[in-house]
Design brief:
By secondary structure, this protein is an all-alpha fold. The protein has helices at about 10-25, 35-40, 45-50, 55-75, 80-100, 100-110, 125-140, 145-165, 170-190, 190-200, 205.
C-alpha cells in the first residue's frame, strides 16, 4: 500500500469535515492534529501540507461556516417591508443552523466570535442583518442603534436555534416559539406606530410562514 496523499483536494475536504464534527462534539482543546488525521484516515503530514497547522485547519472550518451562513442570508430577496425582510432573514438563519448543525455549533461555539460593533467585511454574515436594520431605522419602523438591535436579534435567534439543535424544542412547538419570539423581539425595537401594527397582527400572515 502506498503512502496516503497529503495534498489532495479530497483529503483536504475530509479533514475539514472531520474537524467540523470534532469541534462540534468535543472541547476545542481536545481536538488535535493527530485526532483529526485519524478521523479523516490520513496522516498528520496532510494537515501540515494543506493547512500549515491546527490554527490553519480551524480557520478553514470557520471560513466555510461563515461563507455558508452569508450565502444563506444574502439569498433572501428584499421586499417593500423592512420588518418582513428581517423576519425572512431570521428564518433563513434558523434554517441554515438546522441544516448545518455541526458548522453552526462550530461557528458559535468559540471558534468564531460575533462582534457586530466591529468592522463588517463584505462577506460577514451580520452584513445583511445590519443592512435590513439600517433600512428599518431609516423608514422609522425600528428605533435604536443598529448594532444594539443586531445583537439583540442575534441573541434571540441564537437562543432559539440552540434549543432546537439540543432537542429542547421540536416540531410545531419549535415553529410557534420561533414565530412568537422573533415577533416579540421586533416589537421591542419598533417605533410606536410600527408597534401598534405588530401588536394588532398586521404582519401575522407573513410571520406565519418561512419563505
Amino acid at each position: 500500500m502506498g503512502r496516503p496523499r497529503t495534498n489532495d483536494t479530497t483529503v483536504g475536504e475530509r479533514l475539514v469535515e472531520c474537524t467540523t464534527e470534532l469541534l462540534a462534539t468535543r472541547p476545542q482543546e481536545s481536538v488535535t492534529i493527530r485526532s483529526v488525521a485519524a478521523a479523516a484516515r490520513t496522516s498528520t503530514a496532510a494537515v501540515y501540507s494543506l493547512f500549515g497547522d491546527k490554527e490553519g485547519l480551524i480557520a478553514a472550518v470557520r471560513d466555510r461556516a461563515v461563507a455558508g451562513l452569508f450565502q444563506a442570508l444574502t439569498a433572501v430577496p428584499a421586499s417593500e417591508n423592512a420588518l418582513v425582510d428581517l423576519y425572512a432573514l431570521a428564518a433563513a438563519y434558523r434554517r441554515w443552523g438546522r441544516e448545518h448543525s455541526h458548522l453552526y455549533a462550530t461557528l458559535f461555539g468559540g471558534v468564531q466570535s460575533f462582534e457586530p460593533s466591529g468592522t463588517v467585511g463584505t462577506g460577514d454574515p451580520v452584513g445583511p442583518l445590519l443592512a435590513a436594520i439600517d433600512r428599518a431605522v431609516t423608514e422609522s419602523v425600528l428605533e435604536g442603534e443598529a448594532t444594539s438591535i443586531a445583537v439583540s436579534l442575534w441573541v434571540t435567534l441564537h437562543g432559539v436555534v440552540t434549543l432546537e439543535l439540543a432537542g429542547a424544542l421540536e416540531g410545531p412547538t419549535a415553529d410557534v416559539t420561533f414565530r412568537s419570539t422573533i415577533h416579540a423581539a421586533l416589537r421591542g425595537w419598533a417605533t410606536p406606530a410600527a408597534f401598534l401594527r405588530l401588536r394588532d397582527g398586521d404582519l401575522s400572515p407573513v410571520f406565519g410562514s418561512e419563505r
